[in-house]
Sequence to fold (92 residues):
Amino acid sequence: MQNWIGIAIWIIMGAAIGLAMRAVISRPEEQPGHAQIIAVLGAFGAVIGGMLGVGIVHLYDPLALSFGGMAGAALLALLVTFIYRWGLRTLI
Fold:
């Protein structure tokens, strides 16, 4: 049960990081509806990053509510939303 709660925390944390990244990097030419997309991308990045963090740091005792899981979720959510907000600016 603790792992499901940890994964839910990853999803909420990733969506919050995505929305914070939207507030930090403002784009004047933005169309409406990007808040939902960036929240989903942040949540997706957080889940993948959390799994990678748990797999790398806590190989034999995998717990979602661990330092590796939370750090991996935060870092990959930040990276995915940063690439979407800043890096794809020239492609769109």
